[in-house]
Specification:
Layout: H1 19-40, H2 43-47, H3 51-61, H4 83-95, H5 100-128, H6 131-143, H7 145-149, H8 157-176, H9 180-196, H10 201-217, H11 224-237, H12 239-248, H13 258-266, H14 284-312, H15 314-330, H16 339-362, H17 364-376, H18 379-383, H19 388-393, H20 396-418
Helix pairs in contact: 1-5, 1-6, 3-4, 4-5, 5-6, 5-8, 5-20, 6-20, 8-9, 8-10, 9-11, 10-17, 13-14, 16-17, 16-20
């Protein structure tokens, strides 16, 4: 039986998809924000947001590979997957390490990721729903203060958001025409995404599974398709665990720091969120412990301490998990946060839920495509610690669902108003 989901651009309305003006607005807004920030902050502000990322990139430029993320000379590291540190290292090589030119180049690249994300969001929304939804979702991502702020964060968040929505778009293309090169492309894209942000693993798996299910349901199944995608993903990603085995003499598939993150959010005295003063970047005793035990030993120790804390008070762990879940979807936490960011996250979360419920009633395959990544991606953050930028990584999906909700609610209101009034 063919499942009811659009795999070709929707033609249910006569609205035109306004790609050029929306992208122009997105680009202009980002250039404005970039100019304001560059004028008002020193380069140290930008690079200081993620000193470990900058340190790993600097280490690469010195020919030492990915090593010493917290300074000193502590040897090879798998603290971050190589995708973004290598990009930063390339910028450092061209423009210099920690320079204003490097800052401008990196922010400009991240702004480019953001504008491209607007484009892909519009294409996905049109394919799934229609041009009205595409325009609304695109405008949301073009002018939202929270999203405009995202490229100014010295992390891979802007690229992660682009990778996620691009994978969904490629998945829709693959369902429409599941030829071998489509399967290979989406598998390679998945491998590259995991090299940039392994936290997207569960979301990417759900998309791949959905593609296979849809292709099977549409009688377009090719038995070799999923295997091609899996092999392409392994081919691209395998260099990372091979490197870790060679350099660190241990099998590290993704990153070794899940135990550390678990300890940060659940250690005795923790409020459920990340504590910067306990990070090896700024805490001398933690750095010395890291240097003494080595990265893998340090992470194992933190993992053991986290397990002890959780087992000693499971009720507290449950309370903190509920608190973190609430924070992830609202942006509200004990940490200082912008009202604009919190307001945007609340807006797209609430209307995104409305859009999902409306979608679930008449097109559950599409609801699963958009809902499964939202369900699976945040799971590690519920038990470790959330942050607004983590939520914005998957925001392209709530933005699309928000657009769907606004269009559907408007259509329903118009139908109600069109009913004859009883005298």
């Amino acid at each position: 039986m063919k499942l009811d989901t659009p795999t070709e651009p929707s033609t249910r309305d006569n609205t035109k998809l306004h790609i050029a003006p929306v992208l122009a607005i997105a680009l202009l807004a980002r250039i404005t924000v970039l100019t304001m920030v560059i004028r008002s902050t020193p380069p140290i502000w930008f690079f200081g947001q993620a000193t470990e990322l900058a340190a790993l990139a600097r280490s690469v430029t010195l020919g030492q590979g990915l090593s010493s993320p917290f300074g000193g000379s502590t040897g090879p590291s798998a603290f971050l997957t190589p995708g973004y540190p290598l990009l930063v290292a390339a910028i450092f090589r061209v423009f210099g390490s920690y320079t204003r030119a490097s800052e401008v180049a990196l922010v400009a690249i991240q702004e480019l990721f953001g504008v491209t994300t607007v484009l892909v969001i519009m294409l996905v929304a049109r394919r799934l729903f229609g041009s009205k939804e595409g325009n609304i979702a695109g405008i949301l991502w073009a002018i939202s203060p929270a999203v405009l702020w995202l490229p100014l964060v010295f992390w891979e968040s802007s690229l992660s958001a682009l990778a996620l929505i691009t994978t969904i778009y490629l998945g829709l293309l693959c369902v429409n025409r599941p030829v071998a090169w489509h399967w290979f492309t989406i598998g390679a894209c998945t491998g590259l995404t995991l090299l940039v942000n392994p936290s997207l693993l569960l979301a990417m798996v759900s998309i791949i599974v959905w593609i296979g299910w849809m292709a099977y349901g549409a009688s377009a199944w090719r038995r070799s398709g999923p295997l091609i995608a899996i092999l392409a993903c392994i081919l691209v990603f395998s260099l990372w665990p091979i490197r870790n085995l060679s350099s660190m003499h241990a099998f590290v598939l993704l990153r070794p720091n899940i135990g550390y993150e678990l300890w940060q959010g659940n250690r005795p005295g923790s409020n459920g969120f990340f504590s910067v003063p306990l990070h090896p970047n700024v805490n001398k005793s933690e750095f010395e412990r890291y240097a003494s035990l080595g990265e893998l030993g340090y992470m194992r120790e933190k993992s053991a301490l986290a397990r002890v804390a959780i087992q000693a008070d499971p009720e507290r762990f449950i309370r903190l998990t509920c608190k973190r879940t609430f924070s992830f979807w609202t942006g509200i936490s004990n940490l200082p946060s912008s009202l604009l960011v919190v307001g945007y996250i609340l807006f797209t979360t609430l209307l995104g839920v409305v859009g999902f419920v409306l979608l679930l009633k008449h097109n559950y395959p599409t609801a699963l495509l958009l809902g499964l990544p939202l369900l699976l991606f945040p799971l590690p953050y519920y038990v470790t610690h959330p942050d607004a930028r983590f939520r914005l990584v998957i925001d392209p999906i709530p933005a699309i669902l928000t657009a769907h909700a606004l269009v559907e609610l408007n259509n329903r209101l118009r139908r109600v108003n069109a009913l004859p009034q009883k005298g």
